[in-house]
């Protein structure tokens, strides 16, 4: 791990933020930026989360994905419990610098606490497909993946589920 | 466009939300869920935005991407100004249903208001690469794309830039 923490730049112009080489992230009212994580090989979307200032610094310094867990209200080293650490192959920032994109490889091949490879294992029908399948506006989600990579109970034991109703 | 608006289900259990076929999205305190948009062919991340209730319904009904613009505080039919409409090839929802993934094809091939194909055209160095390149913790972003697909001034004219400092 690098000894020197990353310094973020002040945001002083649209041109600087959008077209420049300064790293000047915009954290929201809760001190967070969005983080989108895809599998570096397959391109599959694995998860969408958030980072605070510290999570972004740690990710940059270590090359492993850190997030801010809103449900646990704390810094979250992804994989610290499950062993499914995400190694950052490439980190990119978007135009207005309120979102980062992590292209990662995942030890164990799974990123979802439910046990699936990706958090996105259900499809919502749209357009004609929606019109044909809806009944009074209600649709059924369609599973695109039904094979869990791991058993959440074995990995997380009795730890509280992170899903909030 | 379908005559019947989508009905979202009440969220009553973790099992229903994570493992069921109910579409029961969780909108946050601002009435929004995160939306991640990738190019259906290349897998490239194009943008990360937000949807409110109406944007999600419109996306489902029409098969074109609608978002909620936080900077303009209004429903946003992506491409309405620029013509760069996003046709939704596949729409997926994540485990706890607070995020949707849009796999789209884009008329014109660009999704970024700055003119690039993707909003993510700059890389942040991490780990050893960071350690080697940083000076007093300051790094320079590296451009991964330097060819703009369109000229924002031609497309948007004098409309205010959406980037907020």
Describe this structure in words.
The structure is a homodimer of 165-residue chains. Chain A is of the alpha+beta class and 165 residues long. The first copy, chain A, contains 4 helices and 8 strands, in the order H-E-E-H-E-E-E-E-E-H-E-H. In chain A, the strands form 3 sheets. Chain A has a 4-stranded mixed β-sheet with strand order 2-1-6-5, covered by helices on one side. A two-stranded antiparallel ribbon of chain A has the order 3-4. The N and C termini of chain A lie far apart (37 Å). At the A-B interface, helix 1, strand 1, strand 2, helix 2 and strand 5 of A face helix 1, strand 1, strand 2, helix 2 and strand 5 of B.
Shape of chain A: globular
Tally the helices of chain A: what do you get? 4
- Total DSSP E strands of chain A: 8
Largest sheet of chain A: 4 strands, mixed
Q: What is the succession of H and E elements of chain A?
A: HEEHEEEEEHEH
Uncertain segments of chain A are: none
Oligomer state of the chains in this structure: homodimer
Rg of chain A, Cα atoms, Å: 18 Å
The order of strands across the largest sheet of chain A is 2-1-6-5
Structural class of chain A: alpha+beta
Termini Cα gap of chain A: 37 Å
Largest interface: A-B, 74 and 74 residues
What proportion of the residues of chain A form beta strands (DSSP E)?
25-35%
Calculate the mean pLDDT score of chain A and round it. 88
Helix content of chain A: 10-25%
């Amino acid at each position: 791990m690098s000894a020197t923490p990353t310094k973020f730049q002040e945001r002083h112009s649209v041109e600087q933020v959008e077209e420049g080489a300064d790293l000047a992230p915009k954290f929201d009212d809760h001190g967070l930026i969005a983080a989108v994580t895809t599998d570096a090989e397959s391109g599959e979307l694995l998860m969408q989360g958030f980072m605070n200032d510290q999570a972004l610094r740690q990710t940059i310094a270590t090359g492993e994905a850190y997030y801010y867990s809103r449900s646990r209200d704390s810094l979250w080293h992804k994989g610290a419990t499950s062993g499914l650490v995400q190694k950052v192959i490439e980190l990119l920032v978007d135009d207005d610098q309120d979102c980062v994109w992590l292209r990662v490889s995942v030890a164990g091949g799974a990123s979802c606490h439910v046990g699936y490879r990706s958090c996105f294992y259900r499809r919502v029908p749209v357009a004609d497909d929606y019109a044909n399948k809806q009944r009074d506006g209600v649709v059924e989600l369609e599973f695109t993946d039904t094979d869990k990579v791991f058993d959440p109970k074995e990995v997380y034991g009795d730890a509280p589920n992170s899903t909030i109703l």
